[in-house]
Amino acid sequence: MEAIAVGIDVSKEQLDVHVHPAGTVLKFSRDSVGIETLIGALDGVAPQLVAVEATGGFETVVVAALAAAALPVVVVNPARVRAFATALGRRAKTDPIDAQMIAQFAAATKPQVRTLPDAGTQALADLVARRRQIIQMIVAEGQRDKRATPRTKRSIARLLKTLRRELSEIDADIDETVRGSPVWCEKEDLLASVPGVGPVTVRTMLAELPELGHLARRQIAALAGLAPYTRQSGRWRGQSFIGGGRASVRSALFMAAMSAMRWNPVLRAFHQRLRAAGKPKMTALIAVARKLLTILNAILRNKTKWQNA
Q1: Residue 9 CA to chain centroid, in angstroms?
Q2: pTM score over 0.85
Q3: What is the side-by-side order of every strand in the sheet holding 73-76?
Q4: Residue 296: per-residue pLDDT
Q5: Which of 15, 221, 224, 238 has the fewest C-beta atoms under 10 angstroms from its C-beta?
C-alpha cells in the first residue's frame, strides 16, 4: 500500500493541502483556528509524511504547530519541488497544484524527518540572523561613505554609530542566551576548543545547524552545502561543485577555515598538502571547510574537546 503523504502550500492568508494518493484537496486559513483545524484533519488521515514548502517565514508557525502535534513534518526546498514538477511536465502553477506537487514530491523522495529546533534554538537563530543583517548594513554604509558628499557623510556617520551600538547589544543578547543554557555552554566550550574556531562560528553552528553531532559526515556536509556533486557522462568527467545547503553556515565555515589554515596545525598541514598537490585555492579552501565541519561534528558527537593528534 502506498504511503500517505500530505503536501501543504503556505501563503500569507491560507494553507492549501493535498493528500496523496487519495487526491483529497483541503483549504484552511493561516491563523490559529485554521491551523488547529488542519491538525485535527491530519490526525484522521494518519500520514507518514507532511511536507511544507519553505516560503520565507510564513511556514514557521505552521511547521512548529504540526511538530508540536507529533506529526511527521518536514520542510522541503521549493526549487527541488519545482524541478520535480517540471520533470513531470506540470507547467501550471497555482496554490492547489503546488500543494499536489509537494505531496507527490514527498511521496517520491521520502525526505528524512528531523527533529525541529526548539524555541530556544530558534530564538538564538533569529539573533544570529539579525546580527548578520546588521553587519551587512554596516558594510553597505561603509561603502557608501567612500563616495558620499560631506552632508551625506554626516548622515552615514550617525547611522553607523546607531548600527554599531545595536550590534553591541545583539552580541550581548547572544552571549546571555548561550551562557544561560548549560547545554549550549557545554557545546560552545567543545566547539571553541578547535584552534581557528571563534565565537561567531560557534554560535552560528549552535543556532543554524542544530543537527551537528547527530548526523554522519556526508549528511552534515550536505546540510551545509559543502558536499561535492560529481558531473559525469560516459567517459567525460566534469569538475565537481558544491551547492545548496545553508548559506549562512557555509559562510561561517569558510571564515573559520581561513583562520584555521593559520592557527590550526592539522588543518594548516592539510591545506599545504592540497596546494602542493596542485589544487586551486578555492578547492583547497572548500576541502578545509568540509574537514573542519567533520571535526566539529565528531567533537559534538563524542563530547570530546579538540586534541592535536
Answers
A1: 20
A2: no
A3: 24-29, 14-20, 5-10, 49-53, 73-76
A4: 95
A5: 238
How many angstroms separate the CA atoms of 100 and 55, rounded?
16
**225 in Cβ contact with 174 (< 8 Å):** no
Residue keyed to cell 560529481: 230
Cα 4–chain centre separation: 27
306 to 6, 260, 293, 302: CA distances (angstroms): 43, 13, 13, 11
On whether the CB atoms of residues 245 and 225 are closer than 8 A, the answer is: yes
Whether the per-residue pLDDT at 278 is higher than 70: the answer is: yes
- SS3 per residue for 251-274: HHHHHHHHHHHHHCHHHHHHHHHH
**243 vs 49, 230, 246, 260, 300, CA distance in Å?**
26, 11, 9, 22, 25
CB contact at 8 A, 80 and 38: no
Give every CB contact of residue 184 below 8 A, 6+ residues apart in sequence: 124, 177, 178, 206
Cβ atoms of 111 and 87 within 8 Å: the answer is no
Q: Is the CB of residue 63 less than 8 Å from the CB of residue 75?
A: yes
Q: What is the pLDDT of residues 154-172, one digit of tens each?
A: 999 999 999 999 999 998 8
Taken as a whole, the chain contains a residue count of 309
What is the rounded CA–CA span in Å between residue 15 and residue 41? Answer: 13
Tell me the CB-side half-sphere exposure of residue 242, using CA atoms within 13 A: 22
Q: How far is CA 262 from CA 106, 171, 259, 269, 308, in A?
A: 44, 26, 5, 10, 15
Of 59-63, 131-135, 215-219, 256-260, least confident by mean pLDDT is 59-63
- Return the C-alpha cell found at 62: 505552521
- Tens digits of per-residue pLDDT, 61-116? 888 788 878 888 888 888 888 888 888 888 777 888 889 999 999 999 888 887 66
| Distance in angstroms (rounded) separating the CA atoms of residues 302 and 309 | 16
Contact 252, 200 (CB under 8 A): yes
